[in-house]
Amino acid sequence: MSPPPPPDLRGAQHPGTRDAPGAPGPATHPPPRVRDAPGANVLGMSENSLRSVSVERTGAGHYVATNARGGTIVFGTGSDDEFTPVELLLAALGGCTAVDVDLATSRHAEPATFTVQVAGNKVDDELGNRLTDLTVTFTVAFPDGEGAERARTILPRAVKTSHDRLCTVSRTVEIGTPVTATVQDA
Fold first, then answer.
1. Mean pLDDT in the chain?
2. 104 and 161: one domain?
3. Is pTM, for the whole model, over 0.70?
4. Which residues contact 106 (CB under 8 A, 6 or more apart)?
5. Using CA atoms, how far apart are residues 47 and 51, in angstroms rounded to an integer?
6. Cβ(111)–Cβ(141) under 8 Å?
7. Are residues 70 and 105 located together in one domain of the fold?
8. How many separate domains does the chain show?
């Protein structure tokens, strides 16, 4: 039996977002664009749009995440040098936008320096534990040479485009999406 189709979210309102800073009420976001590509459905999602990882406990406070391709990353509670889940979120945010920006700029010139610093404040308030004031700061330098000036010129636009449209991680964090947690019998 196939899973039920996803809900039609066209014109859905996302709580906590606004049309403009200080504007009252939630914003209405346009529907996802439908692409005329093989496998695209009415919501613009292809048949291979599902992304997933499996997380397995390896010991007290230690876990390993495995992706569909067999890649793994070890993390834990922060009792040693392993990444914590919050640090992985920050790494995902920086990594996603770094890939976008690197692809756009390095086709013109190989960077001499390419660093992305991601930070946020962890708070515990009436909304629960969460991060606020997330910042993503790029430090990128290109050596003199062919294509370097072009790479420097498009860098700010590449960062903006990644933030505004391309980086799935930052778009998901900023727009927000429901998270469903369930328990399945072992």
1. 82
2. yes
3. yes
4. 151
5. 11
6. yes
7. no
8. 2
